[in-house]
Amino acid sequence: MDRQGHYRTIGRDERAYRSFVPTPLQDIHLEMDEEMQTLLAQAHERLKNRNLSDMDALQKEEVENSMNLVYGEKKSLALAFFETDDKEDKEDKKRKLDEQNLLQATRFAVERMQKLPISSRLLKDVHWVMMQGEHNERKYPGEMRTSPIWLGTKDDTLATAPFIPPVYEDMAKSIADLENYIHYEEQTDALIMAALIHYQFEMIHPFIDGNGRIGRLLTLLFLMDRNVIQQPVLSLSKNLMSSSFKYFTGIASVEVSGTYEKWVKYFSTTITLNV
Fold first, then answer.
1. Quick count: other Cβ atoms within 10 Å of Cβ 69?
2. CA atoms within 13 A on the CB side of 39
3. CA–CA separation, 81 vs 145, rounded Å?
4. Three-state DSSP class for 21?
5. Secondary element (H or E) of residue 215
6. CA distance 183 to 258
7. Where are the domains of the chain?
8. pLDDT digits (tens, 9 = 90+) for 68-113
9. CATH topology of domain 6-270
10. Burial degree of 215 (CB within 10 A; 0-12, 13-18, 19+)
11. d(CA 213, CA 56)
């Protein structure tokens, strides 16, 4: 089994395309070196000593920065999902509603976790809250996709897109594997797990839209579940936005070469900036 995952061909002839199949995280064994151990220790120390005097303001700031990433991605030819372009005069209204939805979804997730573990069911419930609004109706709120999607420009197709996440049957298995990893891996440092979970979720891309927002929120919920943070407030989106090139090249490097160790070092350092 390839450490970085593999591609498989779907379809035939001119309709054929290659979709990604990630390696289950249970099969990834990291090589810990002194640098990684030091970075993890420093990250834990910063998180333990951070200032949480205004939790509500920090939560709203994370939501706003998460939406900055969303609307920045939509303008990027290299990273945007194919979707119908909306008129400029509707963007502000849509964004404000999406920010309200994400804030509500974050608070809903915290409350819901008192009854449900981190699971596909929880993520679907959170996605439903997050994707309310007329402009999100065609994005199947609360449902994981059954059709293929692709990363690329709006002119790309399945045959030309640079990256196609797992097709439905592979996606369903990958989500189940990820859920098992979250619940049954207890020996690994929580920050290492958070880095791997974030990467894996974004590569699976289980929803038609909203995967970035859900993936960042999932990272925070996991850290909260493991008592690394007390609430889903961390300058995660702001920090990723400030190093977006390293973020996307880091993900690409794991996909191509299986450099999980390099990704963990980047992630553990980046998520604790501005703490």
1. 20
2. 21
3. 14
4. strand
5. helix 211-225
6. 23
7. 6-270
8. 888 775 544 344 433 444 455 578 888 899 999 999 999 999 999 9
9. Fic-like fold (1.10.3290)
10. buried
11. 18
Tally Cβ neighbours within 10 Å of residue 55: 11
Give the whole-angstrom CA distance, residue 138 versus residue 162. Answer: 24
More confident: 174 or 244: 174
Distance from the Cα of residue 107 to its chain's centroid: 18
Separation between Cα atoms, residue 265 and residue 39, nearest integer Å? 7
Closest to 214 in 3D by CA, of 111, 108, 133:
108
Contact 80, 74 (CB under 8 A): yes
Cβ–Cβ under 8 Å, residues 106 and 89: no
pTM metric for this prediction: 0.90
In whole angstroms, what is the distance from residue 7 CA to residue 17 CA? 10
| Cα–Cα distance for residue pair 176/172, rounded to 1 Å | 6
